[in-house]
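Colleagues,

For the teaching module next term, I've prepared a clean inverse folding example: a structure given as tokens, and then the sequence designed for it. I'd like students to try predicting residues themselves before seeing the answer, so please don't circulate the second half yet.
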């Protein structure tokens, strides 16, 4: 499966959102022209051209060795081309690579889908009659009698992968035994046997939390399902093909199976229009006659700017001051959802406490601890990419976590963004207790240092 298969639907979604009530964030406050400047047809044509250009740039960047060098090239193109349509579309491409190098703050700033009030929104949960409960507890309780649980995610906001990772073990204990994720490649025939993902296992797999999600499922004994169908097209064609693939690979072969799915945005909704047609979730219901538990996680999260947050989100955060993901439960015991009929529940994720540090949700609710790293690993060369891989996995494995040391402030001139042979830096990795192989590489993917480390549960180890 090519990256185009995995990203085409996202680009179609962007184009649909730009012409609707939603807007997207990039470095400028405004990215869409007013009706007096350009016609909708001209604007769409510019975006399509920008999408083709973005694809070309990414293919060229992928020829460079190493993620850091690839990101460097992507960032340079973004900084030097201020065309509005290009910034809008390419901002999503850049955000993927920012998640790959674990720059989650940067990814949110490059690409963030605003969530305004819409006609199909349910009433605010603050209107009365609702209480809050930990999202994980409610999901587990409601999953007990379900054959399938569908989580959605925002590809540029890996916070929406954290709850899935945290719940995989508990769902496995409840009898769930199949795990499927968007853009896993069916060409990686050895994934299950090998026991860990590599960059060739999928497109989004290069993001450490996505890799951790798949790795965790394998270790827990889930059967891994690559359900995306190559060259299926977009819209109904891809949604139907994906739903049929899920059914054929899982329930047709194993009627007693129980399935966990992770997919992007509205792929998992089980009713309502999706890109002018039907979603994978709705097709799945019709094909399988199974009603999945659908969990919406992309709408009620912190966005790049407060004016992009849903008004319900802002009001709820001001009233609740949460520390962990939660849902609202009514007096009848049913969870509240922003989109009645489309999803069974909506999860609120707390805002990030600090814009400068790596986000605390990387602890995965205590599954991982902080491991500090410092500039001595870079051996005098900056920037450098620090990666931790599980000691029992190969050098080709997707890192458990990464961080970049000495990436200059994004507002600085492009020429000084990356400074070689200069600077001090320190950072932190988030790792499960265990043994790891720690490496540092430069923008040419040259290894600068390597060492074995042990991360202990009681406290962060010393670098």
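(Answer key — instructors only)
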């Amino acid at each position: 499966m090519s990256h185009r298969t995995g990203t085409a639907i996202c680009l179609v979604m962007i184009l649909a959102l730009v012409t609707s009530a939603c807007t997207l964030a990039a470095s400028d406050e405004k990215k869409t022209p007013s009706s007096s400047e350009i016609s909708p047809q001209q604007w769409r044509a510019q975006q399509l051209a920008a999408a083709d250009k973005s694809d070309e740039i990414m293919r060229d960047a992928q020829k460079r060795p190493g993620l850091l060098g690839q990101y460097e090239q992507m960032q340079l193109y973004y900084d030097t081309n201020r065309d509005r349509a290009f910034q809008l579309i390419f901002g999503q491409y850049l955000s993927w690579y920012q998640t790959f190098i674990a720059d989650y703050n940067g990814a949110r700033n490059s690409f963030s889908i605003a969530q305004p009030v819409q006609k199909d929104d349910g009433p605010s949960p603050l209107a009365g009659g609702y209480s809050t409960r930990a999202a994980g507890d409610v999901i587990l309780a409601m999953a007990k009698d379900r054959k399938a649980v569908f989580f959605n995610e925002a590809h540029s906001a890996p916070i929406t992968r954290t709850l899935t990772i945290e719940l995989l073990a508990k769902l496995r204990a409840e009898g769930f035994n199949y795990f499927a994720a968007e853009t896993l490649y069916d060409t990686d025939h050895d994934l299950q046997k090998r026991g860990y993902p590599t960059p060739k296992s999928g497109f989004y797999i290069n993001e450490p939390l996505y890799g951790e999600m798949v790795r965790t499922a394998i270790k827990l004994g889930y059967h891994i399902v690559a359900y995306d169908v190559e060259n299926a097209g977009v819209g109904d064609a891809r949604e139907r093909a994906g739903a049929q693939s899920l059914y054929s690979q899982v329930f047709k072969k194993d009627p007693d199976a129980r399935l966990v799915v992770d997919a992007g945005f509205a792929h998992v909704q089980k009713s309502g229009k999706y890109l002018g047609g039907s979603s994978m979730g709705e097709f799945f219901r019709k094909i399988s006659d199974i009603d999945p538990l659908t969990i919406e996680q992309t709408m009620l999260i912190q966005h790049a700017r407060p004016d992009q947050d849903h008004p319900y989100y802002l009001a709820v955060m001001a009233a609740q001051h949460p520390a962990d993901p939660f849902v609202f439960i009514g007096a009848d015991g049913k969870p509240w959802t922003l989109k009645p009929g489309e999803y069974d529940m909506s999860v609120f994720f707390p805002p990030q406490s600090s814009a400068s540090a790596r986000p605390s949700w990387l602890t995965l609710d205590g599954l991982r601890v902080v491991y500090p790293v410092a500039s001595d690993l870079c051996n005098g060369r900056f920037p450098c990419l620090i990666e931790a891989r599980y000691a029992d996995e190969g050098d080709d494995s997707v890192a458990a976590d990464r961080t970049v040391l000495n990436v200059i402030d994004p507002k600085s001139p492009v020429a000084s963004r990356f400074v070689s042979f200069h600077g001090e830096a320190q950072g932190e990795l988030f790792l499960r207790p265990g043994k790891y192989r720690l490496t540092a590489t430069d923008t040419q993917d040259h290894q600068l240092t390597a060492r074995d480390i042990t991360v202990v549960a009681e406290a962060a180890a010393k670098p």
